[in-house]
Amino acid sequence: MPEDELSRSSHSNPGKSLVNGIKTNPASNSPKSSLSVPMGPPVYVDLAYIPNHCSGKNTDPEFFKRVRASYYVVSGNDAANGEPSRAVLDALLEGKSQWGENLQVTLIPTHDTEVTREWYQQTHKKQQELNIMVLASSSTVVMQDESFPACKIEF
Q: Which positions ≥6 away from 85 have C-beta within 8 Å?
């Protein structure tokens, strides 16, 4: 769109503005509904980090419908802030169920949390149907005075 056309379109639409080329509605209070993201084909990647430590604030089934990864990293370890979020883990199941192809997906939790353990146990049958494997690790990395679980990923 030429610059003068872009300028006219933003003036003829009071109350709406462009952020990174996407129309937004500043009057909307919901962060998910404030951006009108155009639909497009899904993006396929080898590895995707689930945004915001797997918090439900930014990730919903639409993320998993559009970002199709062989490996998803779940890094949340803060139950007080809802990280990782059970809703996001459920969104993975919902999003993957709509792919229309049964590609192998591996979920890589960086921490062993009660939320991930319960989700794994309660949805194990659905995970198998959708060809989702949850990686468990018994490896530990020790750095200075801290130790934490680790996973090795090979491509």
A: 54, 55, 56, 59, 76, 115
pLDDT tens figures, 36-60:
556 789 999 999 998 876 767 778 8
User: Structure tokens of 137?
Assistant: 């690790």
Going from N- to C-terminal start, the domains of the chain cover 43-149
- Predicted TM-score of the model (pTM): 0.66
What single DSSP character describes residue 39?
Answer: P
Q: Could you tell me if 119 and 132 are in contact, meaning their C-beta atoms sit under 8 angstroms apart?
A: no
The pLDDT of residue 155 is: 56
Residue among 87, 89, 80 at smallest CA distance from 130? 89
Rounded CA-CA distance 63/67 in Å is: 6
Cα–Cα distance measured from residue 36 to residue 51, given in angstroms and rounded to the nearest whole number: 19
Are the CB atoms for 75 and 54 separated by under 8 Å? yes
